[in-house]
Design a protein that fits this description.
By secondary structure, the protein is α+β, with helices and mostly antiparallel strands. The protein has helices at 2-9, 18-59, 131-167, 172-205, and strands spanning 69-75, 79-93, 97-101, 106-111, 118-119, 124-128, 207-209, 214-219, 226-227, 232-237, 243-248, 261-264, 267-276, 287-293, 304-321, 326-327, 333-339, 342-353, 357-362, 369-373, 384-387.
Amino acid sequence: MLEALTLREVEPMSDVTKPSLFRRAVRWTVSTTLTLGVVAGAGAAVFFGSNMLADRAEAIEPPVAADLTKVSVSPLRMETSYTVPRRFVGQVESGANVTLSFELGGRLTQLFVEEGDRVTQGQEIARLDVALLEAERNRLEASRSATASQLEFAETRVGRAEALREEGFASQEALDQARTTRDELLNRIAETEAALASVQINIEKSVLIAPFDGQVGAQSVDGGETLAAGQAVLTLLETSTPEVRVGLPLTVSPDMLEDAQVDVGGVLYPVTLSHMRPDIDPVTRTRTALFTIKAETAPLFGQTATLVLQTQQVAEGAWVPMDALREGSGSIWTVLVVDDGIVRNAAVEVLHAEETQVFVRGTFEEGAALIDSGAHRVVPGQAVEVLNGEG
């Protein structure tokens, strides 16, 4: 049987297998032809389609280029220092603040001023009742007249006693007695004169006089009251030279106060240092300084005053507007500068800030064109148009 199988395997292809190979060849030829046809059709479609799109693109007008963003710039000016204001709180005071009162007690009969009135030095402000003093003055004047009459008679007696003594008709004792009586009357007149002077002084002290030019402050009486000696009548404020009292640390020397200013209610007033007290406040450990305000219209007394001192800080940098600052990455501040028409970033460090500007140092050069306003409208790398001198 093995021989029969071997002989069967080496027999040539029969007529049954020949048609199968032919069909496979035909299918392969047809599929290849169809594939090539599809590829050729697709290539033709792409070719003609691209040409059509190119023709349409050429037919469309190109868009008009947008105008460059206009920006306002200013050159950065390098400086070697900046000024830092130091502030110390104080109070506005009058040059003199006096509570006026009478040295003597009595009934207040006249009050010539009211609160807020302006007075001049020597002006009469108030007056006490002086009826009793005038009566005492009249009594003393009458007593002086009576003593003067007695003195005249005593002088006559002395003259007679001296004449009789020279003639030997009077004793030395009688002469001495006459002289003693005369001297006693002289002393009595002197005593009366002193009493009259005292009464006159009391009458003058019954009138309250303004010691300086000023303005009436608080008034403690209305008139008609019976006042005790030293009882307050009113307060007089000197308005010509208002002062500011400020407590300063010991590190502030008088040389630093030459160009000082005070801020009162948002208004700056130039001041001059009047004097500094030689002692130190035991509570605040500060030294009191008094400044005179140099202004035609002075602030109200009692207002809070802030002394402003300018201190120079040495550092190289430039002032930039607050609006020009941009917050960068990693808490770094940046500003935008224009270099050859292109916006560039410059990192900066803020050294000092004020209300509208800051002093910075950073990666910029002297004269760099800083975008001082509208920095939010542009970005780094953008081409811009620089406005020369325009906002």
